[in-house]
Amino acid sequence: MTLAEGETRKITPTVIPQDAKVTWTSADKNTATVDENGNVTGITEGNTIITGAIKVDEKEYKAECEVKVTKLPNITLDTTEMSLMVDEVRPVKATTVPGDATVAWTSADKRIATVDDKGNVTGVSEGTTTITGTITVDQKEYSAKCEVTVTKTPGITFDTKEMSLKVGEEKTIAATTVPKDAKVAWTSDDYDIAKVDENGKVTSVSE
Q1: Measured between alpha carbons, how far is 17 from 54 in angstroms, rounded to an integer?
Q2: Is the pTM of this model over 0.90?
Q3: Which of 120, 113, 114, 124 is nearest to 87 (CA)?
Q4: Cα–Cα distance for residue pair 97/138, rounded to 1 Å
Q5: Are 53 and 60 in contact (CB under 8 A)?
Q6: Residue 4 and residue 17: Cα distance in Å, rounded?
Q7: How many Å apart are CA 128 and CA 4, to the nearest integer?
């Protein structure tokens, strides 16, 4: 019999005579225990022997069951939250029991982020979604999740790419930034020709 830590399975004996009472024992209760009804519970990883015994006419008759206890299958991720930018790629690493379990990766919304079969997450568009890693052991699924927030790539654009000014004339350049609350530092390549203040206002100085 193979069972996981914390799992309980029943041994059903066949006895002659049928009304004989079975006494159950475990060779190592630290590995697995057994109750008076033959229910075996895995405690810690290892191997032990469960014995069922009956007495008939002062003679004892025994049967044994070898029990192997394995760690409870599970999957954990190295992070439960992740932030990345559009087009950025970051990996999610999974630790599984058993160690050779194959992880199936899925994204709740591929329009926001995708994930490949190795757990590499790619930001697609701004938003939040969930990446799930799943293993299947003995036809049972075990999952772990990571919440992914995707933001736009930081950048800055101007409302104009060229500007013509007369000497002494002023015009303001409007900037659009990602993120919106980013502070813009304004500079001029040549302050003898044009200067710019902290608000993007350009003043022509000379030709």
Answers
A1: 10
A2: no
A3: 124
A4: 12
A5: yes
A6: 33
A7: 36
